[in-house]
Amino acid sequence: MQPLFREQHDTVRHDSAGPRFQRCSLACPFETLEQNLQPSVGKPVVLAFTELSEPSLEPRVAELAAQGISRLEILPLFFAAGRHLREDVPGQLEEIARQHPVSLHLLDPVGQHSAFVDAHASIVESQAQDL
Fold first, then answer.
1. Residue 76's closest CA among 8, 14, 3?
2. N or C: which terminal CB in the chain sees fewer CB atoms within 10 Å?
3. Which residues 6+ apart lie within 8 Å of 115 measured at CB?
4. Which of 116, 102, 84, 87 is CA-nearest to residue 10?
């Protein structure tokens, strides 16, 4: 899983403590997304969770640092940059950066990208036509 340019994309997503979510297997949408992105992105993509689920962010960064990855770009799978993403995640990243020799770059949440907004609009339009 070592990329050509010593960079790694790391996706972070919010977790749910609900029992239905905790029972989710590899068929879960986030794991499926991780697997589907691997061949098309051009860089390895790994999934990490902010809390309540595994693998959490710190062990994933440690694993990548041990592979010689020196730069991580973290794309939060959040709709918007709420308090959790503005405060908690940067705090986690600061602590992780003190423990591991990597450069961590927090990207804008996926919900702020126009392609994401367009995809949602397309889904809504499709669902509305089916009514």
1. 14
2. C
3. none
4. 102
